[in-house]
């Protein structure tokens, strides 16, 4: 059975499309967002700096380094830009602007009304900005003060000397402008980016579903056709649609299936011819072999009275005639299995008595140890079970070493017969091939005079009973064959016994 992948092709395609959409949308929307945010803040910052510079030009230079309330009010009115800004004026570390009496507490962000202008909380001004302005430079910085984004712009004021020259007066003016409107615009831009990304993701999933539907349909058809082909449906073909790569795959599959069907038909015909040839030859040989067997019996009787070279030749001819007769009989039996005409003749039998009869008939009762519990009955074909046991015990006696044993066990549904010898066992490389036709384990066994079909016929007889025959090496040495047969073998017509 082919294992199914933990993540199907449809899911992988959907994931790939979604990931591509998310990455693309995030990259595009993120880039646009960052660029737009920087542009908005930069434009706001530049506009505020230009506006403050142009307004301060109307005040430069100051007439005195100690401006009075009226001049401070003029400075505050000139620098501030309505309710969206605030001002702080310092001389050194001293603030020159004070909130008017009874002014309310400052709102969030450090901006509070004071006199004619909104006064900036001193804590909102970073030390680095103070140092830059104190050095005589116009400087600005975006900060977040108490949760509110603001733009701080600081500049020193100049004063006119008696000799008409100007110098830094020591007075510093700081203007704060709220960036909340810009922040709201940026937040709306971010929300739009998220919305566009979500729409792109949904669109990508729809495209992925359509794509997977178009791709997976022929893939599913190909898988179904491959399964049918593997089950022996050689006429299976795939409908070819279009001219793309999947259509080329369908063409290739159909061509391969057609070639496979042709080769399978040829092999079936060749196999049928070979089986028919073996069966015909075997049947044709039975008549002359019957005559040769009669001659062999006469030669056996006369071999002892013949001179030694002639006697030895007579015995050899007799033995080879018997071997040839056994080979022909085995080939006929194999041909019956191959052609499907081998049939069971099941009867209710005492399995222990069947084993004893097999051993007694062949004169093996004294050479084989048995463990045969009484009252073990089963519905079997006694002739075919006799063939299996005769082959297994005969092989153990010829090729193994004593003692040879036969043990019978049973359960409500199965009977088990184990035939074992105590020889060197079978080589691990031999075990998978033991039941092959014409296979002889010459490397580990003594030279066999059999046809090499005995174990193959034994296993076919076991399978005809819906059972099986297996082999393994016993832990303490020797080969052990295990025959498992159902206690109720089906009738020849296929119905239950």
At a glance:
By secondary structure, this protein is an alpha+beta fold. The protein has helices at 9-56, 69-79, 127-134, 180-230, 245-303, 308-339, 351-361, 382-399, 454-464; strands at 85-91, 94-95, 111-114, 117-120, 139-145, 148-160, 166-178, 347-350, 368-371, 377-380, 404-410, 414-420, 468-473, 479-486. The two termini are 33 Å apart.
Given as residue ranges, the uncertain stretches (5+ residues, pLDDT < 50) are 100-116, 443-448
Averaged pLDDT: 76
Secondary structure class reads: alpha+beta
Major sheet summary line:
5 strands, antiparallel
> How are the strands of the biggest sheet laid out side by side?
2-1-7-6-5
Work out the number of β strands: 14
User: End-to-end distance, in Å?
Assistant: 33 Å
- Annotation field: number of helices: 9
Strand content: 15-25%
Order of helices and strands: HHEEEEHEEEHHHEHEEHEEHEE
What coarse outline follows from CA principal-axis ratios?
rod-shaped
Radius of gyration: 53 Å
- Helicity level: 40-55%
């Amino acid at each position: 059975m082919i294992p199914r992948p933990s993540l199907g092709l449809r899911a992988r395609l959907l994931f790939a499309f979604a990931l591509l959409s998310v990455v693309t949308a995030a990259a595009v929307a993120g880039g646009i967002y960052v660029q737009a945010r920087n542009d908005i803040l930069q434009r706001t910052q530049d506009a505020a700096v230009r506006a403050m510079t142009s307004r301060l030009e109307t005040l430069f230079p100051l007439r005195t380094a100690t401006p009075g309330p009226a001049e401070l009010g003029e400075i505050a009115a000139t620098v501030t830009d309505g309710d969206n800004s605030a001002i702080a004026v310092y001389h050194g570390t001293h603030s020159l602007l004070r909130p008017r009496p009874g002014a309310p507490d400052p709102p969030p962000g450090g901006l509070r009304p004071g006199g004619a202008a909104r006064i900036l909380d001193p804590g909102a001004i970073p030390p680095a900005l103070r140092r830059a302005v104190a050095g005589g430079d116009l400087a600005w910085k975006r900060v977040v003060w108490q949760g509110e984004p603001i733009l701080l712009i600081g500049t020193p004021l100049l004063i006119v000397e008696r000799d008409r020259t100007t110098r830094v007066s020591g007075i510093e003016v700081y203007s704060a402008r709220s960036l909340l409107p810009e922040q709201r615009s940026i937040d709306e831009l971010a929300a739009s980016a998220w919305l566009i990304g979500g729409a792109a993701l949904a669109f990508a999933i729809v495209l992925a579903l359509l794509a997977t539907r178009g791709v997976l349909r022929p893939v599913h058809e190909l898988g179904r056709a491959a399964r049918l082909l593997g089950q022996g449906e050689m006429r299976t073909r795939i409908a070819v649609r279009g001219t793309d790569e999947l259509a080329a795959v369908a063409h290739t599959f159909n061509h391969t299936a057609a070639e496979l069907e042709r080769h399978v038909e040829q092999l079936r015909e060749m196999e049928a011819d070979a089986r028919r040839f073996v069966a015909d030859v075997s049947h044709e040989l039975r008549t002359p072999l019957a005559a040769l067997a009669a001659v062999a019996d006469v030669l056996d009787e006369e071999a002892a009275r013949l001179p030694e070279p002639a006697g030895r030749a007579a015995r050899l001819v007799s033995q080879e005639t018997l071997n040839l007769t056994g080979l022909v009989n085995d080939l006929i039996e194999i041909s019956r299995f191959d052609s499907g005409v081998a049939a069971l003749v099941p009867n209710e039998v005492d399995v222990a008595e069947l084993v004893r009869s097999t051993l007694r008939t062949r004169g093996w009762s004294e050479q084989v140890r048995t463990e045969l519990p009484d009252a073990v009955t089963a519905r079997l074909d006694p002739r075919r079970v006799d063939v299996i046991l005769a082959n297994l015990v005969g092989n153990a006696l010829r090729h193994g070493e004593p003692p040879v044993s036969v043990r019978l066990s049973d359960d409500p549904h199965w009977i088990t017969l184990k035939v074992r010898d105590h020889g060197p066992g079978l080589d691990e490389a031999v075990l998978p091939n033991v039941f092959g036709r014409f296979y002889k384990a010459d490397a580990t066994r003594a030279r066999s005079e059999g046809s090499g079909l005995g174990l193959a016929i034994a296993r076919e007889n076991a399978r005809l009973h819906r059972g099986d025959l297996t082999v393994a090496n016993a832990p303490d040495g020797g080969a052990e064959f295990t025959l498992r047969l159902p206690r109720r073998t089906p009738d020849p017509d296929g119905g239950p016994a």
